[in-house]
Amino acid sequence: MSSEQVICQTKGPVSWMTLNRPEVLNAFNTELGKQALEALRRALADDRTRVVVLTGNGRAFSVGADVTEPGTDPNPAKRIDIMATIAHKAIAEIRQADKPVIAAINQLAAGYGTALALACDIRVATETLRLHYAYSLIGLTGDGGVNYFLPKMVGISRALEIALTGEPICEEEAKRTGMVSRFFPEETFLEETQALAEKIAAVPPKAAAAIKAMMYASQNADLLTHLATEKAFLTERAGAPEFLDLIRKFQK
User: Fold this and answer.
1) In terms of domains, do 123 and 26 share one?
2) Which residues of 118-133 are buried (b: 16+ CB within 10 A; e: fewer)?
């Protein structure tokens, strides 16, 4: 087994980041958080990379923070603050990146693992999916934007129920609410995720970046502002050489 806490692999235009603490279901300690943030920044800065995929080694995507670390610290609040600062930098990197980021959720995500998955642009999962809010069960209130993303996806009332009961979100609800866009069998999960990522990677990078930026900006913009933004991006992209190249391919 690799001693690296994050395994990085490049497969064509796709950069994979695999959280690698399977013995604790990829729970985040400070070191894993630092390595993951550094790996994410490298992948997003790599000109060869068109799409980034985040996943976990073993039986889980991630169960969130490794609570044994702050639990043994004489100042647990300070340790939590350090871990949350690193975690929030990763969330910001994902949302501000030009490149699409896919969360490939293998079986289980909880706490910050759920927040990290919800922050990604696209989520795919195994058919045995379970998503847990988890924080409230240990007297905490959530980080990584989970209290921002979850209500937008399932509504405030359902989000509060999920957060306060600790009950999991499973495949059926994740599919119905659009939290997860595709489910794959465990035996073909990695291969089918790679195929999806390659399909997305075929979109010209500047077009993909513009689409991502517009989709997120639209959540807080009025229609007329959004229409003006769409027109500006569309006109700019129509003058790009790859637009004419792709049009010629369609005409053949």
Assistant:
1) yes
2) bbbbbbbbbeebbbbb
Strand partners for 103:
54, 123
Question: In 10 A of CB 194, how many CB atoms?
Answer: 18
**189 is a domain residue:** yes
The structure's pTM equals 0.93
Domain of residue 236: give its range.
205-251
| pLDDT single digits (tens) 86-97 | 999 999 999 999
In a domain, 45, yes or no: yes
